[in-house]
Amino acid sequence: MDGHPAIEQHGLIGDLQTAALVADDGTIDWFCSPRFDSPSMFASLLDEERGGRFRIAPEAEGCVSRQLYLPGTAVLITRFMAPDGVGEVIDFMPVQDGPATGRHLLVRIVRVVRGRMRFVVECAPAFDYGRQAHTTEVTENGVAFRGPGCAVNLSIVRRPEEEAVDAAQLRVDGRGGVRAVVTASAGQAGGVVLETGPDGPPARWEPERVLQALDRTRAFWRNWIGRSTYRGRWREMVERSAMTLKLMTYAPTGALVAAPTAGLPELVGGERNWDYRFTWVRDASFSVRALLGLGFEREAEGFLKWLGERVREAGERSSPLQIMYRIDGSADLAEQELGHLTGYLGSRPVRIGNGAAAQRQLDIYGEALDTVHVADAHGLRVPHDGWTHLRRIVDWLTRHWDQRDAGLWETRGGPQDFTYGRVMSWVALDRAIRISQKRGLPADLAAWTRARDAVYEQVMSRGWNEDRAAFVQHYDGIVLDASLLYMPAVGFIAPDDPRWASTLHAMDRELVSDSLVYRYDPDASPDGLRGSEGTFSMCTFWYVSALAHSGRLEEARLTFEKMLTYGNHLGLYAEEIGPTGRQLGNFPQAFSHLALITAAVDLDRRLDLEAARPA
After folding, report:
1. CATH placement of domain 10-225
2. Over the range 532-548, which residues count as b (16 or more CB within 10 Å of their CB) and which as e?
3. What is the pTM of this model?
């Protein structure tokens, strides 16, 4: 990787309002504050020179490093091993599980386990994606970084008897960063605390205060994951995925970001570089199903409230839902390019915002209504006002489902009659009908039923291609699309239906490569972008579920186990897997982790049923 950390060489820490990536060399190379979608202050992952970074690592080269999470928590430990000693950096963010705040803490504890080690501490923020200059002042307790609208303090952790910070030990470089070298022996510990949005100079942090923050953070995560009801075969991986989804949830609104990063490429050196720090109606809806399956009703209820607000806004305007929003529910996601950044390994342009927000994607109504239906089955009933607005959305869909759209994959090659969009329109109408009938809620059931049946007939006649003996990506094409793996999961077609069996076998031949699944063939179905991409992790987990539903349990289990080997050393997944097994795209990706959870639950259920059958 030419000395640059691979995407998968990172762990994730966060406080439920923002998050940071920590590379296995001790560098925080991505961090935005005060929110996930705020401008970055550390972004050396996208530009080593201009992006800014925060590194703590042994001075000596050649150390072997390993990363792990403190079991049952989101506290990350990076260990460094050398002949002369073993040391570690413990990274965490105290949880902000409340109203939005500009004050966030990033704590880095440094300790030596064996022998003696010299650590280099480098903190070089680059505010506003590296576009804003700042001043640097060394104070008695640390360093104050100040820029236009930006304030960050770096406090040095020291014992009560220690004197004020020695300015001579902190070297300020020409770009306003600081560097220090500290030596410690076995049993000794220290550290630093980065505070964003402070209301004064760096505060004094003593070891006891830092350890108390660590204890509280550890207790929060262990108490939270202790609520999980999953007791299946892959508990460790499922629980890590659940914690990863929690880390990507913005506590003040309950919204889930698709990923905490922007600009990480789907093809190194290519242009498929997007900003995923927003909330897609589709992704977050899928997460509700996954989290409810693990017993996390509070998180599901939080997102349903966020979704209810978007439905209310759309219903009052009698307009469609937008496919994505900012985490606070605002709709302005204007896309722009950061031309001053070189991009990850030269992958340009680096984009912030997302122009796909203006696309029409009809499938989102299916995911949203299916989520409301699943939540209703768990006792989270839609209130009267919510149903009133939801009815207007469904009424809109009955009039507009037969339109071309941009599709699930947000292609930029023009609208088509995407089969997946039609299938999910059927789901939206079907779930709305079921909720109305079950709860006795008012609705134009005759119109909804006619529309639902018309969608079904159209998919079966136009989405099915006789020559391919398979359902295809869109009505005017012959390309297969892995999104259709979801058809039996939503009940559109029975898993033993001959048409579905034939479609699945066609996908086996054309989209599956040694168990990994491509979304579609971009060469056969131009998507308006240059270059190719890797296999899509979510699709591989969907493939596992489809195999399990179709009774191919041995294949499903082997495929799932193989896919687990592509997670990184911490069990985290980006969006895609490249041809060499490297991870590609924004990291970690919510879609990948929620699909892992769903696949594990589906496969567990099917394996248990198989084991219970008489011999």
Report:
1. 2.70.98.50
2. ebbbbbbbbbbbbbbbb
3. 0.96
